[in-house]
Every structure is written in structure tokens, then in C-alpha cells.
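Retro notes, item 3 of 5
We never archived the inputs for the magnesium ion complex last cycle. Fixing that now. Sequence and ligand:
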Amino acid sequence: MIDIWIEKYRPSKLSDIVGQDANIRKIRSFVEHKQLPHLIFAGPAGTGKTTTAIATAMELFGEDWRQNFLELNASNERGIDVIRENVKDFARIRPSNDLGFKIIFLDEADQLTQEAQAALRRTMEIYSSATRFIFSCNYSSQIILPIQSRTVVMRFRPIDYNSMKSRLQQIAKAEQFSLSEDAMEAIYSISEGDLRKALNVLQTISNSGEINAARIYEIAGMANPKDFRLLLSKALSGAFDEAREDLDQMVIDRGLSGIDIIRGLHSSIRKEKVAPKQKLQVIMALGEAEFRLVEGATELIQLDSLLARLASIGNEFN
Ligand SMILES: Nc1ncnc2c1ncn2[C@@H]1O[C@H](COP(=O)(O)OP(=O)(O)OP(=O)(O)O)[C@@H](O)[C@H]1O
Ligand SMILES: [Mg+2]
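Structure as it came back at the time:
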């Protein structure tokens, strides 16, 4: 059996959770005082919400944490009645720890309707002497105010580059391979701050030969920003046929859509150092091409016509 890295490397200690320092500091102080308020963990996927809830239980309850931690998922527990039954059954059994409370972790709490949340709030009230709730959601604004006002809201941010790098380097070391800065940057740009996504990309690539930026983008089905930079400079310098060939390769071999190409060129021109006027013209040309594609014009013709436009813009400034 292959270990899935997102599970194999799920931190079991608060100190292994990266990029959420302010939250971890607060939680650590709760743990030290052996108490816990009700909490809301709000933030995007793969940033450590579930991990932090479990690590908190582990640090509070030690080996007995499983008996003192109930995980429910609001989107697959078939309605608020099932959730309340589960909460009731769990809360009825006395906590098997000397802290006097157990933790109920409710994932995707923002999937519950307002009415369901109101019902949940009453349940929370009834059992709050011996239970603490941790609600996980993408947006805390989707949680009704009566629940918000009884909880401490903690925001989980997309993982920043350095935090992600330190975690991935640690894992690479444990798996005995090395990760270049280029490869790290590629993974980061694909992950968009989601450490689950980053770990999945890293595991896939490590199973199959050399680990470099080009292969990482390929496996993720994304074009390398370098390819766009090259395409742009070929088009602007009037090397139409070569640009055309690169474009075909991206569309036919890698399956990128016309919109993918335009977006890639767009983020590339924004970073490029060219005359401001030229930059503006390129951006306008991209905007027009995008508009036509969205309106349903023929992709191949529009992309060719875009390359021709870029050649004429380049010509004007050379
Ligand atoms: N801050 C972090 N520090 C260390 N590892 C992390 C962190 N965030 C995520 N991970 C890794 O990614 C995996 C998934 O994270 P987790 O389940 O905590 O995400 P989540 O925020 O609960 O996401 P979702 O909103 O999709 O439920 C973890 O098992 C762990 O390996
Ligand atoms: Mg989660």
C-alpha cells in the first residue's frame, strides 16, 4: 500500500502546523490553561483547519483523544436532525478526561441552512457544559450571528511561500529527495497556498522521475510561465511561424484552451518589463481576444489573429 502523503504528513503536533502562527499561539495558550472556548475556523481549503482541530484534541487529551473528539460533516450527515442526534449521543457519555469537556468538530458548517444553524445553536447551549464546538467553514460570514457571538473566530490564510517551502523541504528530506528553488516555485504557483494540493503534486511528481519545474507544470496540466514569456516575446518580435508552432503545441499537445492561453499571456505581460505604451496595447489586444472567445468565435482563428496583432504591436515599438 502506498502512503498518501497528505495523511502520512498530517501534523499531529501544533508545532508542525505552518503558516498560521497567530492562531496556533492562541490555541497553545488555551491548551496550557486546559480550557477551550467554542471556535470557528474560517478559511480556504488545505490550510490546516481540520489538522489544527485534531492536533488541538491530541494535545489536550493525549492518547485518549479519539474518545474525546467527534468529527461530523455538515454536508454529508443528511440534515440537522442527524447532527443533533450524533451530538446528543456523544455528549451524553461523560468525558474520559480530567478536563471535563469533549470536542465536537463540525466540518463545512457553512453548508447548513440558517434554520439548521439556529437549531444547532440550541443544541450547543444544552450541552455546552461538557462539550466545545469547533466549526470549520470557508467564510465565517455564512455562520449565523448567534453562533458567531458565542465563539472565537480564527482566520486561516493561504499558506505563504516560506511556510510552504519549509514544510515541503522537511517532507522531501524525509522521503530522501531534494527540491530545487525552481521546483518549489512551480509547486507554489500551482497550489495557490493550498498545502493539500501542494503535497499531492509533490507526491505525484516524486513517483515518476526527475523533479523539475517543467515536469511539475506538465503533471498539473498547467503551462509553464516561462513558455508564455517565450511565446509573447516571439510574437512581439514578429517570429510569427515560431510563435504559431509554440501555440499549437500548447493547444494540441497539452490541451490548453484559448482562454488558458490568453490568461497565461496576460499574467506574463503584466510582469514583463516593456514600454508602458506597448504593455497597454498588448493588454487591450488580449482583452479583445478574450471577449471574442467568450462570445463564441472560432478559437484557432482568434488565436492566430491575436498573434498577428502582437506582431504588429511589436513592429510599432521596435
Ligand atoms: N498549515 C499546515 N501545516 C502543515 N500541514 C498542513 C497545513 N495545512 C494543510 N496541511 C496538510 O494538508 C492536509 C490537508 O489539510 P487540512 O485537512 O487541515 O485542510 P483544511 O483546511 O481542513 O481543508 P478543507 O477546507 O478542504 O477541509 C493535511 O493533512 C496536511 O498534510
Ligand atoms: Mg478540513
